[in-house]
Design goal:
Helices cover 40% and strands 18% of the residues. The protein is α+β, with helices and mostly antiparallel strands and 235 residues long. The chain starts with a helix and ends with a helix.
Length: 235
């Protein structure tokens, strides 16, 4: 009987120890930085713990004697472990996206879903716009998210007020034809996008979201977008 119980007792003891360790790390981090830690987990490298707080990942030891900020790279695979974890930790529910406040484009059967937060004066966003023209069977929701300059706000309002928002967006982002319409329609959607983006800690453009809720920030190669769209099709 004891032989049967022993593995279970050891497992419970180890689990309790892990919880206690994570609680200690959380307590030490919050005491030193004055910021609430949303989650704490073993990083799997060098005995460090992954601390997710204020929209970013920080690594620390159990006693709080040292903290590391920056990307953690797996020495065998050379993958950016920190970025992969950030993509998952910062994921959202697709249903939480206010799609009515986005510029909508449907290509082909539209079954694959992609959402992006973009600034009209963002160079990487313009490159993304050109790449997205090559996609088929996709519905793209572009949230106007002007964060770079007052001119970004003006252009966003003009695009939102255009009779054909998708055309106005692509005319500017792909062909460089600046919007010429007036921006005096109801543009509260843009201000609400900015507020929503801040809550999601979207600090740069473009930021992409896929149907499974995963977030991928920054310039993303088209091949990676295609791969992700194929994985999430039909969700």
């Amino acid at each position: 009987m004891l032989k049967k119980l022993l593995p279970s007792l050891i497992g419970l003891t180890l689990a309790a120890g892990a919880v206690a360790d994570e609680a200690t790390v959380k307590k030490n981090f919050e005491a030193k930085f004055g910021v609430k830690a949303d989650s704490v987990a073993k990083a799997g490298y060098l005995g460090l713990y992954e601390i997710y707080a204020d929209g970013q990942i920080i690594y620390g030891d159990e006693k709080g004697t040292a903290f590391v900020v920056g990307p953690l790279i797996d020495g065998k695979t050379m993958k950016n472990v920190t970025q992969e974890r950030m993509n998952k930790l910062s994921a959202i529910k697709w249903s939480d996206l206010p799609l009515e406040r986005a510029v909508k484009q449907v290509r082909g059967d539209g079954r694959r879903l992609l959402a992006s937060f973009e600034d009209p004066n963002c160079g990487y966003c313009k490159r993304l716009a050109r790449d997205l023209l090559k996609l088929d069977n996709v519905t793209i929701y572009t949230f106007l998210y002007p964060i770079l300059s007052p001119d970004s706000v003006d252009k966003s309002k003009q695009i939102w007020c255009a009779d054909d928002r998708a055309k106005a967006w692509n005319d500017w982002m792909v062909d460089g034809r600046a919007p010429t319409g007036r921006g005096d329609c109801d543009t509260t959607a843009i201000a609400r996008n900015q507020e929503f983006g801040r809550k999601l800690n979207i600090n740069g453009t473009p930021t992409l979201f896929f149907a499974d809720g995963e977030r991928i920030p920054g310039a993303v190669p088209l091949a990676r977008i295609e791969e992700k769209l194929s994985q999430t099709a039909g969700r």
